[in-house]
Amino acid sequence: MAPLYILPLLLHLICPITTVSSVGINYGTLGNNLPSPKTVAQLLQSTLIDKVKIYDSNPQILQAFSNTGIDLIVAVENNHVANISSTKSAAQDWFSARIAPFIPATSIVAIAVGNEYLATDDDSLDPNNLIQAMQNLHEVLLSRGLDRKIKITTPHSMAVLATSFPPSTSTFATTLMPTMTSIVTFLADTGSPFMVNAYPYFAYRDNPTTVPLEYALLGNSTGVHDPSGYVYTNMLDAQIDAIRSAIASLGFGNRSIHITVSESGWPSKGEPDETAASPDNAKTYNTRLITKAQSNKGTPMKPNDKIDIFVFALFNENKKEGGASERNFGLFNGDGSKVYDVDLSCEFCSGTKMEFGFGPGSKMVQRGPSVWCVAKPHADERVVQGVLDFCCGAGGVDCREVYENGGCFMPNKVHAHASYAMNAYYQMHGRNYWNCDFKGSGLVTFSDPSYGTCRYSQQ
Ligand SMILES: *[C@@H]1O[C@H](CO)[C@@H](O)[C@H](O)[C@H]1NC(C)=O
Ligand SMILES: *[C@@H]1O[C@H](CO)[C@@H](O)[C@H](O)[C@H]1NC(C)=O
Ligand SMILES: *[C@@H]1O[C@H](CO)[C@@H](O)[C@H](O)[C@H]1NC(C)=O
């Protein structure tokens, strides 16, 4: 049998390009009626969401997401940035106390240092501390050999731009230029994404007579022409490209900086004058946003640069400050019922199509101590095919069940066959989470993927 470490090499040879489209979500916890992190983690596993961003380093959440196959982005709160920037040992202490106890069981892939740190009204936040805190944390990762797995970044608000239209001429606010230059240099040097929170909703709300609703709603609006020739059919693309131009204007034109939309969403309810904040519009925007996140498409300026997207937000948060819309960005109410219908179902997460939800009218899924391994629903088909070939070949799995006349032949789909084979391999090898990695295409699940004549083995 081939040792496991050969697998990535084999896969690399078979399929050099890995594209896994995935959908992220922001899991904020400013509510007094939210389910436990454990419940949230277990139920997210049955959806297409495979990346979760939180706003702190809450140990209950980090623990809850261990061995779930879901990647986590954790955060340093704005008011703790100064501490981490003060000395390298302060950064070391924070990492040792907050993060180290949970890795590698919890797949932490990034640390967001602050949130919209440069655009807050809080005068006590010194802009110079931000880059210093990022550098200190990066050195901690370097010293622990974790810098490739965990990226250090910081989510910005669109307010860091001097102007955002037309996209091709956008620049950062003059006062922020030196800080932005340091941050972008750091991101380029460390291969980390530039994160931006982008809300066409607010642009529409503040200018309803000049911004067409379809343009804000990620529709296929009549094109808005940029003087450089780019045509924008939706505002989110224009906002992303405005960021791109601002970065390029710092002189990073030839360095590749990946842009991630760390927050975007649409409220289902607002103040009386927020007429566009409706369940229908929220459903339209977030459905389109999720489709966009799953596509490999970029924006008019960089059509082939896939944009990672984190939907804002998982829950309505009843203790959030600000106008009513702030408390109504969630896809779900605190009791787990859907605020409106958005399809997060995931055909191959568990073998059976399952509804996310744990409130009135939704199925509560009973989970025992058993775990299984399946293919991620959106893992690239070539990768999954490579995994299937490996498991049934050198991996030593008895794959007769997925061949014609086998109990798991139907559905005759590569993800389904691979899930069967990956699970068998995972069970055979002691169910360590790394036996279900398969170059990022595997997912551990607590719900039995067996169906009909197809039985998934377990230890
Ligand atoms: C940073 O935070 C830690 C833990 O809360 C505390 O012990 C330490 O004194 C703080 N350091 C500074 C410079 O504020
Ligand atoms: C948007 O409109 C263009 C031009 O009418 C069309 O070619 C394209 O397929 C449409 N895209 C979507 C996503 O509807
Ligand atoms: C990128 O630009 C910098 C500064 O203009 C230059 O020194 C460098 O050689 C360029 N790199 C590539 C790969 O073009």
Automatic annotation (TrEMBL):
InterPro entries: GH, Glyco_hydro_17, Glyco_hydro_17_plant, X8. It holds the Pfam family X8. Residues 371-456 form the X8 domain. Keywords: Disulfide bond, Glycosidase, Hydrolase, Secreted, Signal. Its EC number is 3.2.1.39. Gene3D superfamilies: 1.20.58.1040, Glycosidases. Coiled coil: none annotated. It comes from the Eukaryota. GO terms for molecular function: glucan endo-1,3-beta-D-glucosidase activity. It is found in: Secreted. It catalyses: Hydrolysis of (1->3)-beta-D-glucosidic linkages in (1->3)-beta-D-glucans. GO terms for biological process: carbohydrate metabolic process. Belongs to the glycosyl hydrolase 17 family. PANTHER family: GLUCAN ENDO-1,3-BETA-GLUCOSIDASE BG1-RELATED-RELATED. This is glucan endo-1,3-beta-D-glucosidase. It comes from Lactuca saligna (Willowleaf lettuce).
